[in-house]
Design a protein that fits this description.
Layout lengths: L3 H25 L9 E3 L4 E3 L1 H22 L9 H20 L3 H19 L6 H32 L4 H10 L5 H17 L9 H7 L2 H27 L16 H21 L7
Antiparallel strand pairs: 1-2
Subcellular location: Membrane
Protein name: NADH:quinone oxidoreductase/Mrp antiporter transmembrane domain-containing protein
Keywords: Membrane, Transmembrane, Transmembrane helix
Length: 284
């Protein structure tokens, strides 16, 4: 179509601005929600201040990337329509990640972010580095998703529910330590760690960042990471926050996740900064 690339640019920017205005409206008009939140899709998704806060971050980040792409030569204008479509799908996935209260919805949201990201990483079809980045992204992402899905299946088999509140209630009712529960949560956190590039699941980052178009490198470094943190915080708060108040939580399946996350954060920052010293490419 004539001027399809320019039209797709303005349509995308308009969509993001309208979404941003709608999100601000939801934030400042909490009276329309019961107790400040609203459930959708049989309780699998919640719209609350927490999710809306992160949605504002997603929208501002994506809007900045779209504007950055306008004068960037790495993404050809004739490919803008597909490019912007993939970015909007990824944005929807990040919305769902910040609002999910169900393991199945969590998995679908992560895949809705991951699959378009694989294509965006290799968007420069004729560039060998871009194709390599996409392939590595797919391999690492598929492996992490498989482990995460395996952990989810174990959690469902033990708790008998996919809802985070029910999983938290099951953990509260446990009277003895369950090794399988610990393993299932570790497998689940592999997927979360991959999404936020936490050590030791960060090895895909340098190659993918180097081979991807520069706007996509900026996008991968911000928005999906924030979405991963939003999902991780909600998951831990919903399923494990009450364990500290349980009289038998220490004997059951309680693990000091605060300490574990603090250690992983320190290791991630240390490894990232030390290895960055010997790099010659800013994107790596």
């Amino acid at each position: 179509y004539k001027n399809a690339s320019i039209k797709s640019f303005y349509i995308t920017v308009s969509t993001l601005l309208l979404s941003l205005l709608s999100t601000f409206y939801l934030i400042f008009d909490q009276a329309n929600f019961t107790s400040g939140f609203k459930f959708l899709f049989l309780g699998s998704i919640v719209i609350d201040f927490y999710s809306n806060f992160f949605k504002v971050i997603f929208l501002l980040s994506v809007l900045a990337i779209i504007l950055l792409t306008y004068n960037n030569k790495e993404v050809k204008r004739e490919d803008w329509s597909e490019y912007y479509c993939l970015i909007l799908i990824t944005t929807l996935g990040m919305f769902l990640m910040s609002s999910s209260l169900n393991l199945l919805m969590i998995y679908l949201a992560i895949e809705m972010v991951s699959i378009p990201s694989y294509m965006l990483a290799g968007f420069n079809h004729n560039d060998k580095g871009s194709n390599e980045a996409s392939m590595k992204y797919v391999l690492y992402g598929s492996f992490a998703s498989g482990l995460m899905l395996f952990g989810m299946s174990w959690i469902y088999g033990q708790a008998g529910s996919l809802y985070l509140n029910d999983i938290g209630a099951y953990m509260m009712s446990a009277t003895q330590f369950q090794f399988t529960s610990l393993i299932s949560f570790i497998l689940l956190f592999v997927g979360f760690g991959y999404k936020i590039s936490s050590a030791p699941f960060h090895y895909w980052v340098p190659d993918v960042y180097e081979g991807s178009p520069t706007p996509m490198t900026a996008f991968f470094a911000v928005a999906p990471k924030v979405a991963g943190f939003a999902l991780l915080i909600r998951f831990l708060y919903t399923t494990m926050a009450q364990l500290n108040f349980s009289s038998h939580s220490i004997e059951a399946i309680y693990v000091d996740w605060n300490f574990i996350l603090a250690v992983l954060s320190a290791i991630t920052m240390t490894i990232g900064n030390i290895l960055a010293i010997r790099q010659n490419d800013v994107k790596r």
